[in-house]
């Protein structure tokens, strides 16, 4: 029985009949969409031992190495505490290096680890981007090209 039927049977007071059900609640729908997208990316990053946030941070550093943790947080819309913890785990696992800024010793810059040769790093980054693209495709597979473009535009407006 939906809200309208419950209201008609006097189970819901008239002033509460404007309540939004899950099927129409944007917060619920966004959460479920995010859950699906995160699952699709998570299963593709699992073979590398990375979480979705770790993968996003590594991708951000590939796009521009030497960012501060605050700059990474702004680009990914993540709070400082989250970024700090993820960077610590990436550093412990050997994915990144933290280096003091040469011009301002108070600033730490984050770099992709150079322990491996650059060619191996490039191969990994290509795999990382392929995993992200595959996750995007799986998440959006039921949408037309026009719907995908519209969804991206609307989501960008929200964040």
Short description:
A hairpin with a 7-residue loop joins strand 1 (96-100) and strand 2.
Write the layout of secondary structure elements.
Layout: H1 3-8, H2 26-45, H3 52-63, H4 69-76, H5 80-92, E1 96-100, E2 108-112, H6 118-140, H7 145-158
Antiparallel strand pairs: 1-2
Helix pairs in contact: 2-6, 4-5
Overall description:
The protein is mainly alpha-helical and 159 residues long. It has seven helices and two strands, in the order αααααββαα. Strand 1 and strand 2 (108-112) form a beta hairpin. The chain has a two-stranded antiparallel sheet. The protein has helices at residues 3-8, 26-45, 52-63, 69-76, 80-92, 118-140, 145-158; strands at residues 96-100, 108-112. The protein has two domains: 21-50 and 120-159, no CATH class; 51-115, Orthogonal Bundle (Arc Repressor Mutant, subunit A), CATH 1.10.10.10.
Strand order in the sheet with the most strands: 1-2
Average pLDDT: 87
**Ranges with pLDDT <50 over ≥5 residues?**
none
Strand content: 5-15%
Question: What does the largest sheet look like?
Answer: 2 strands, antiparallel
Number of domains: 2
- Percent of residues in helices comes to 55-70%
Straight-line N-to-C gap: 35 Å
Structural class: mainly alpha
Could you state the oligomeric state of the chains shown?
Answer: single chain
Tell me the total number of β-strands: 2
| Topology order in helix (H) and strand (E) letters | HHHHHEEHH
Shape: elongated
Radius of gyration: 21 Å
Number of helices: 7
């Amino acid at each position: 029985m939906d809200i309208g039927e419950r209201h008609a049977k006097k189970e819901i007071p008239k002033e509460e009949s404007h309540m939004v059900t899950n099927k129409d609640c944007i917060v619920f729908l966004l959460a479920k969409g995010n859950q699906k997208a995160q699952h699709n990316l998570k299963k593709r990053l699992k073979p590398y031992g990375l979480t979705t946030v770790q993968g996003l941070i590594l991708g951000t550093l590939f796009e521009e190495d030497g960012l501060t943790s605050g700059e990474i947080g702004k680009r990914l819309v993540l709070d400082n505490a989250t970024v700090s913890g993820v960077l610590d785990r990436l550093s412990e696992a050997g994915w990144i290096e933290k280096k003091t800024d040469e011009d301002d010793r108070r600033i730490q810059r984050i770099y992709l680890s150079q322990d491996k040769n650059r060619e191996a790093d490039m191969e990994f980054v290509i795999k990382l981007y392929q995993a992200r693209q595959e996750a995007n495709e799986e998440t959006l597979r039921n949408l037309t090209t026009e719907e995908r473009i519209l969804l991206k535009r609307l989501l960008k407006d929200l964040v």
